[in-house]
Amino acid sequence: MLAENEKQLANVKAGVELKLKGRRTALNEADAAEQKLGRELDAARQRLGVLKELEKNMDGYQNSVKTVMRAASARRLRGIIGPVSSILSVEPGREVAIETALGGALQNIVTENEAAAKAGIALLRSENAGRATFLPLDTVQPGFFRGSLSGSARLASSLVKADPRYANIVSNLLGRIVVVDDINEASRVARELGYHNKVVTLDGQVINAGGSFTGGSVQRSAGLFTRKQEMEELRVRAARLQKDCLAAQDRTDELKTQVDALAAELTATESEIITAANDRIRAEAEQKRLERLWSSRKQRSPGVRMRWSGGKPSWTPPAPVPKTPQSRKKPLPPISRRGRPSWNASPRATTPSLHSSGASPSA
User: Fold this and answer.
1) Which residues pair with 341 in a beta bridge?
2) How open is the CA angle 204-210-212, to the nearest 5 degrees?
3) Dihedral sign, CA of 11, 14, 20, 21?
4) In angstroms, rounded to a whole number, what is the distance separating the alpha carbons of residues 237 and 42?
5) DSSP string, 278-344
């Protein structure tokens, strides 16, 4: 029974070890995934921080634009809204085309009114800080497109989003520019429009109004819209990675708890196995001791038997030998007066016979 118990415990131990191995493998994988997500999150945050710093320092803007915006931040100028790039939101994948379509107008400064534009010009003159173009909301007129579009051609103004109050500015800057997929499509559309409109491709190639071509390579990371779009993508990515990191951490903690529990169960099972083995060894030693004792008693008393009851030995004495008539002793004969046994005397006689003494009846 003790050996069977040891066997059962060994099976339990094997099952726990198998589970523990699987949980440890899953824990290692979860921990690696968590660390990878953490590195990606750190990289996204670092890149976002760099772009924010560039945006804060207005990196890529002309010195005149920086001067006006700093004066507005210090409240030395009033009615300054900001550069065109700050009021527009571009469809993903269209940043290069819109940046190319706007060109230098991307850094034009939007103002609340004509007076604010004049104050900005006066500031630039007084500080000899260069020139800038201002777009007062009360003077800028919308642009109108006269023609028809076909194929992939779309007006540039339809590829951006802005507050309705800036509708005239958007129409003025982008309402007459056409955006197409590639240079071949641009050639066809420009020809159909009689070369009266500027046509821009998604990768930044241009057919200008009048028929001239401008093109070449474009650095995607150099544009203001590209930076703005990348910042937005990084914000979304960082938020998602943060959520994934928390989920991965919860998964890692859960697996670690399971591993600890299984390790404790394995330790307890091993302890039970050791205890069971010790019990078996003690039982075997006790059995051998009792067998030696039984052998010794058997030699002294051949009829003694040993049996086990309830896990304990008990001794049975030898059965008594039944008495048989042959084994009974004969009674001793009565003694005569002469001191000799009388074999003829009756067992029930209490006095000696007269014939035995030799006396006559008359005497």
Assistant:
1) 335
2) 45
3) negative
4) 11
5) HHHHHHHHHHHHHHHHHHHHHHH-TT-EEEEETTEEEEEPPPPPPP-GGGSPPPPPPBPTTSSB-TT
Whether the full predicted model's pTM is greater than 0.85, yes or no, is no
Q: What's the CA dihedral at 293, 295, 299, 301 to 10 degrees?
A: 70
Cβ neighbours for 157, distance < 8 A, ≥ 6 positions apart: 170, 171, 173, 174, 175, 177
Report residue 265 as tokens: 């169960």
Three-class secondary structure of residue 89 per DSSP: strand
Give the whole-angstrom CA distance, residue 264 versus residue 261. Answer: 5
pLDDT digits (tens, 9 = 90+) for 101-128: 998 899 999 999 999 999 999 999 999 9
Residues 217-241: pLDDT tens digits? 876 545 788 888 888 899 999 999 9
Radius of gyration, alpha carbons of the chain: 58
- Burial (CB < 10 A; 0-12, 13-18, 19+), residue 303, is exposed
Sequence-ordered strand ranges (E) for 152-217: 154-155, 160-161, 178-180, 199-201, 206-207, 213-214
